[in-house]
Design goal:
Rossmann fold, 337 residues, Elongation Factor Tu (Ef-tu), domain 3, 18% helix
């Protein structure tokens, strides 16, 4: 009897633009179709995937080694990509898997800004039939491949904070919590370039979600967002008290104090601090679960703004760093690689 074929947790899938819809002045939603996209796992939350753009001399990927049988079945696409001469490497960018429809369409939301990088240029000018490769979680795999950094544990209160680059992940998280029947409450602060950058985002039932859109309209990036978080934290002091539930006869380790705070150096290293691994377990009890009210914060976007919000939550309000995720998706003033 033949042994069932195994699949890597992430697989490169050929994907063609079906529609490109401008949700807002600075947001383009692209729906992709492809012969095998029905194998993309709809893992939800803030699932990251890789978008690979075609080379000018191979727009339909007819000669790409990244779509070889070995890359697709052994998961070696990254090693193959790195082995190529620099001028033969397809541009790669990271995006949130916004949704996968029941009929196998993949949806990605692109934040548009100037000057645009390769992916932003592609999104702004996308036409039906344009072809990319998506390296995405494979539903046929029995292995979890990572890429989800939303780990709320038993949280009953969740704070989501981000700019326009984090808005797709915030939308994915809220949608996933709603599908899971999570009974808690979400507060989300989303900064956008302009007042017109406001698009439908499904909330939780029974009014258990508050989503505040915050346009910059020419003001300093992140300034209003930081102050909004500061005010919200000051008005919810009970959420920042950590108590550890007992597991047997032992209690959890002592929570870090504000005096333990260390500033993130975003000029020297990537700001990416996330607790937990695996698929989120919102509402489920892990071995050690934090919080008198089970509070969890998820913050993503421009690195300097994320750093400042991290300072407010950890240093100024004493949030246990094991109850928060801070991710610098990009850095202002630095070109995309």
């Amino acid at each position: 009897m033949a042994k069932p074929q195994s699949h890597p947790p992430f697989t490169p899938f050929i994907a063609r633009v079906e529609t490109a819809e401008r949700l807002a002045p600075h947001v383009m939603r692209i729906t992709f179709t492809g012969p095998e996209l029905h194998h993309v796992a709809n893992t939800g939350y803030d699932q990251r995937i890789k978008l690979l753009l075609p080379l000018a001399d191979d727009p339909q990927w007819e000669h790409s080694p990244l779509l070889s049988e070995e890359c697709r079945t052994q998961g070696t696409w990254w090693d193959v990509w790195r082995s190529l001469p620099v001028n033969q490497r397809n541009p790669i960018r990271t995006y949130t898997l916004r949704d996968v429809t029941a009929d196998g369409r993949v949806i990605i939301d692109f934040a548009l800004h100037a000057p645009a990088g390769p992916a932003g240029t592609f999104a702004a000018n996308a036409q039906p039939g344009n072809t990319v490769v998506l390296v995405a979680p494979d539903a046929r795999s029995s292995t979890y491949g990572g890429g989800i950094d939303f780990h709320p544990g038993i949280a009953s209160q969740v704070l989501l904070v981000g700019d326009e680059t984090a808005a797709p992940a915030i939308g994915g998280i809220v949608d996933s919590l709603a599908r899971a029947g999570w009974p808690g409450r979400v507060t989300a602060f989303v900064e956008t370039p302009a007042r017109e950058d406001h698009w439908p985002m499904t909330g939780l039932p029974d009014g258990r979600s508050t989503i505040l859109w915050m346009p910059r309209d020419g003001r300093e990036r992140g300034a209003d967002l930081v102050e909004q978080v500061r005010g919200w934290a000051s008005s919810h002091p009970q959420l920042f008290t950590t108590r550890w539930r007992k597991t047997g006869t032992a209690t959890g380790p002592a929570a870090p104090s504000p005096s333990d705070f260390t500033e993130a150096d975003i000029d020297r290293e990537l700001l990416w601090e996330t607790p937990g691994e695996g698929v989120p377990t919102a509402g489920q009890l892990p071995k050690l679960a934090t919080g008198s009210d089970g509070f969890y914060a998820w913050v993503a976007g421009e690195a300097a703004v994320v750093r400042d919000i991290r300072r407010v939550l950890l240093r100024d309000h004493g949030l246990d760093r094991r109850r928060a995720a801070f991710m610098g998706y990009w850095r202002a003033g630095r070109a995309e690689n």
